[in-house]
Amino acid sequence: MSIRTKMMALAALLLVTALPVFATGGQEEAAVSQNPAEMSGKIVVWSFTDEVGGMIEHFNQKYPNIEVEYVVIPNQDEVYLNKLVTTLRSRDAVPDVFTGEAAFFRQFVEAGFWEPISDAPYNAEELKDNLVPYVVGLSRDANGKMTALSWQATPGAMFYRRSIAKEVLGTDDPAEVSKWTSDINKYYELGEMIKEKYNGEKFLVSGYTDMAQFIYNQRKVPYVVDNTLTVPGSLIEYMELAKDMRTNKVEGGVGTWSPAWFSGMADASVFTYILPTWGLHYVLKPNAEPEASNGEKEFSGDWGLCVPPAAYSWGGTYIGISRFSEKKDLAWAFVKHIGSDPEFAKYWAEKTGDFVGNLNVVKEIKDDFADPFLGGQNHYEYFYNEVKKIDVSRVGPWDFQIENAWGDQVELYANGEKTKQEAMDGFVTAMADILPDVKVVFEGR
Amino acid sequence: MIYKRKRSESIALYTFLILLAALAIVPFYMMIINSTHTTVEISQRVWLTPGSAILDNYEIIQGKVDIWRGFLSSTIIAVPSVLLSAFFSTLTAYGFAKFRFKGKEAFFWLILGTMMVPQQLGLIGYYDLCVKLGLIDSFLPLIIPSAANAAMVFFIRAYIQSSIPDSLIEAAIIDGAGEFYIFMRIVFPLALPSIATMSIFTFISKWNDLIGPLVLLNSADKFPMPVVVSNIRGLYEMNFGAIYLGVTISIIPILLVVITFSKRIISGLTVGAVKG
Amino acid sequence: MSGRKFAFFKNRNNKGYLFILPFFLVMLTFQIYPIISTLNLSFTAPLNMFENKFVGIANYERLLTNEIFLKSIFNTWFMWLLGFIPQMIFALGLAVILYEWQVWGKDAFRTIFFLPNLVTAASIGVLFAVLLDWQTGTLNHVLLTMKIIDEPINWLSKSGMARGSVAFIQWWMWFGNTAIIVMAGLSSISGELYEAAFIDGAGKVQTFFRITLPLLRPILLYIVITSLIGGLQIFDIPRVLTNGRGAPDNAITTMVLYLYNQAFKNFNIGYAASVAYTLFFMILFFSIISFKLISGKKQKGDDEI
Hints:
The structure holds three protein chains of three kinds.
Chain A: H1 2-33, E1 41-47, H2 56-62, E2 66-72, H3 79-89, E3 97-101, H4 105-111, H5 133-138, E4 156-161, H6 162-169, H7 174-181, H8 184-197, E5 203-205, H9 212-216, E6 224-225, E7 228-231, H10 233-247, H11 259-266, E8 270-276, H12 277-288, H13 290-293, E9 303-306, E10 317-321, H14 328-340, H15 342-352, H16 359-365, H17 379-387, H18 399-414, H19 420-434, E11 439-442
Parallel strand pairs in A: 1-2, 1-3, 5-8, 7-11
Antiparallel strand pairs in A: 3-10, 4-8, 4-9, 6-7
Chain B: H1 7-34, H2 39-44, H3 54-64, H4 67-98, H5 104-116, H6 119-133, H7 140-143, H8 150-163, H9 166-174, H10 179-190, H11 192-208, H12 211-216, H13 225-232, H14 240-271
Helix pairs in contact in B: 3-14, 4-8, 4-11, 4-13, 8-11, 9-10, 11-14, 13-14
Chain C: H1 3-14, H2 16-30, H3 32-41, E1 44-46, E2 52-54, H4 58-64, H5 67-100, H6 106-114, H7 121-132, H8 138-145, H9 159-186, H10 191-199, H11 204-215, H12 217-231, H13 236-241, H14 255-264, H15 269-295
Antiparallel strand pairs in C: 1-2
């Protein structure tokens, strides 16, 4: 057994180190000499989101002879990860291109699932000046090579119901509302005002968990450094905040992504939703005003964009070439087109309103946006300023698991099922299961 | 019927049965009702009366997936699986029930043992195997293993043991019947109630299997119903109504199979009592 | 029996090998490889998402001292038994009622009781999540309207309630299915025996315990063992109810949910494989015990299995 396993591991290691060498060696000249119309063949693209499906048409205008077979596998219950990990473990040549989400894509990068694209024949470093710097930075592997691109950048915002703002604050002006929402204490105070005004039938926020993203983004250093996980003070404060909000009924007690969370968007029972760029177009609009989203009605314009208590980024989809693809030249054409082509970025921004990752394009178009859903507010301008604030030097591969484990304990503390100490102990136990070799310490203790 | 019931007993009995039936049917019914409501309506409360969104939900489905193709794929997987498992399980069960050979007990525990390893990880190894056999993106690896259905062998074996007397088989041997003839003409028909019972379960589990097809099939046009239904849910929207409509559509064939087969079981049950 | 005849019978018995051969061929081709590869994995630790290193039995050592895993063993047994015992009682009762008694609408009842088994756990889970949600759920809505409670109860945040919900759903999904299996078993019991018991003056209850239950042994054995195998692998319902988290505080994390999360959320497939094998031996051990308990003294020598 042991020898066999070792042999297998060795063989795998050899294969892994050798493959990229062969692969790049074979394709160098091909990628240089071909022009888009001459490239032909079929590539398979896997993604957990159906967005990519809407991009193929534009890609085919430039590359008419590359057929893209696109398969969507939603990551509900981790089935996308399940399929991808299973496939790549057996070094299958399918798919040629696949996407990864912020929550887990750093794992892909560390495992080397994606082909490094910094060097020839891809030379992605030449593209990076036009792209949002943090997006490029996050795709770098341990050797500093870029591994994936993204069509979007995902700075965060807060969206509010104008009608509630008018009744509670007497104004729905974003600048005035932001005075209340950009500071966590004022935000809480506002929550109490809303509770009083509507006798507890409307809420500041659907659930305190909505705030998690900007709270987690406040950390100054990565969670894990030298095998020690330091829980930042901001996370410990979050426990108290969550408990206060829940006990005082300042929040609605609804979990993010639960059915009730979605219905709160439509039935005007919730004042704010804390969502990033994609959240506006793919979550809030279709769920808050489904008919207007389909173009069957006009938007009511009852929503506005205000400043959250802290800057954050949330999510983001990356797209890269599978290291086992046998058609890396075609795969790169697709990745490059979607991840950097300015014409595509412009087309995409205009089609969906999503905040694109090509800065030149953003600068060009940002002044002209006026979203009817937001009562004519320009969200693009706002996001352009926010995207500069994003610092990704603190991002690590296990952030998602760490934050989830912390969130579980916060919930237990907030519901009064555990004391603070028990919750912190519970987190240590949970982490021992995810990162058994890592020691957990709490900042300031 | 041996005992006579008092009126009060009858009332109690039917009350109990009807309450239980309601409990079984209500959530099931709500699921079907939900397919006629919008997502927002569904997430607000539970509905007992139909809504008016069924066509909208159907449009959402059509806009996202090809549900009828999923229907076809599911049929291609489930029907041969049921036939294979019915035939081979009965064959194996008969071998265990009516023959005494060396190592029988060990073989039997080996069969049971395959059920005891959780399948969630087995897929990783199974995928590797299918790569080696060149069977990725093919229906075959989803169908052929049904020929080795441990639970079904276990059940039919117990049934054959208690309902087919040895004397019947011995008589056939004396009449000069061949082994396969005996199996096909005597054992199989007599075991039919148990085969039908198990076939229902096999059909349901094959029809509802999500993760196996998802991992082993790569082409979207081969995805069966459960994968198609899970694809109705977008990444960021909930589309509950459309999902429930998808689930409802995918229940129809199961319901038909259950009704057809349970007729078989029931008729089998009434004539099946052979042995004392 | 004469020597020649004995030899002949021995030969015929050996034909049994031919009947079970196709099964084993398919099993060897398709099932053994994954099972061995899982075993292999259980001795490895991940270097990253797809490369492993050999670590001997370290995974098993870690497992047996792991608080959450030990808790998941308790949870699994607790929720399984909480659902299985009533499931068994209802199945036996219903089977006797619907098979032996004269009941109007038998066929309809039989089909209706089986309905909950038709739908995937995932669809059921979403439905129950809406029912049990503490702010907007129907259950709280009804209780509040009837003034039974003043404050909405956060059902799924209480470990007892969460476990109870899982057990209830399991019971709900499976009692009709089990009843059908029992009915198939009842069909192999002759009516003459009941008449004899009636003549001897045995009551309903006595007949059930003296005649029905003992003769149902092979079927009961089937039900107990398959339910043990399935029950200790409970996974879907706890997963959909809690979004895969086993919350609150792992109160409904089952062994297989733990395994799945380790493999596909924490990307430690080797460790997950060691969970799979620990579970395998546990199921095997308890299957053998139930086998011994239920088949009891063997009545006719060797034909129990």
